[in-house]
Amino acid sequence: MSPSFDGPLLRTHDVDVVRDGRHLLRGITLEIQPGEHWALLGPNGAGKSTLLALLGAVSHPTRGTVDVLGRRLGRVDIRELRAHLGHVNPRHPLRSPLTVREVVLTGHTNTIEPEWHRKPAPEAVERVEQLIETLGMAAMAEAPWTTLSQGERGRALIARALMPSPRLLLLDEPATGLDLTARELLLDSLDLLRHQHPELASVLVTHHLEELPESTTHALLLRGGECVAAGTVDEVMTTELISETFGHPIRISRHEGRWTARAAARRVPGR
Ligand SMILES: Nc1ncnc2c1ncn2[C@@H]1O[C@H](COP(=O)(O)OP(=O)(O)OP(=O)(O)O)[C@@H](O)[C@H]1O
């Protein structure tokens, strides 16, 4: 992989995914450039995770093409490609009581347990500290994994995914199940990260507009495996398009960079 690669980080062209004779995605065309931060939005079963699996080189399309970092899926070793992507797995299979610092360091070798027999490179140790700071985990760097809350684990896993300096960060519903403070800390960390690494691109899957960081630049709306709209947030995050995507009249608004959504008002008899 050439570090000087400067085309679109991700490109899909007219992609279909068919499983068991069923279209999970149909005709998806998308291009993601460095510095862009995409939201993948849609109701349950819309195909968001299916699309994220393609973008993360985890699965192949049935038809159409997917280019990840300039390499076409189907023509390259996808394990090699995945090493250049920061894919945050919310079901990280760690069971042992490693500290936050140790968990983040495992991102350097992309292993679950640290390579105890090898002393980590000083650059890797330094990067761990920078990322722990950016993700707001400095006060709990020595806390054991087993005692962390879900929100703390989520932020530690983002730091871990960033260890190999990926060009692209993929996040599948990172705020699900977090309380209000944990969600706000996570979104704040993502905003800071994007500010500190202007070349990074990201794709964040969610059902909830309230879970989108202020720094979101683009959105792709999915419904029934098809793209309702894709483009800049100003073009796409509209009351009309979000209502069409979720199949319900929803009014959206943006205040100080963040979005809220609510069902359009119905007249209640007697009020
Ligand atoms: N291997 C498969 N074979 C058949 N259908 C599948 C397969 N994998 C997923 N599906 C179906 O494809 C549809 C899209 O699934 P996907 O997980 O991509 O949706 P999603 O938008 O991420 O949903 P959610 O918001 O509920 O997580 C769903 O109806 C799901 O049941």
UniProtKB/TrEMBL annotation:
Cleaved signal peptide residues: none
Pfam families in the cross-refs: ABC_tran (PF00005)
Keyword entries, A-Z: ATP-binding, Nucleotide-binding, Transport
Residue ranges of domain ABC transporter in the record: 10-249
UniProt GO molecular function: ATP binding
SMART domains: AAA (SM00382)
UniProt keyword ATP-binding present: yes
PANTHER family documented for this protein: METAL TRANSPORT SYSTEM ATP-BINDING PROTEIN TM_0124-RELATED (PTHR42734)
Stated name of the protein: ATP-binding cassette domain-containing protein
Organism expressing this protein natively: Kitasatospora cathayae
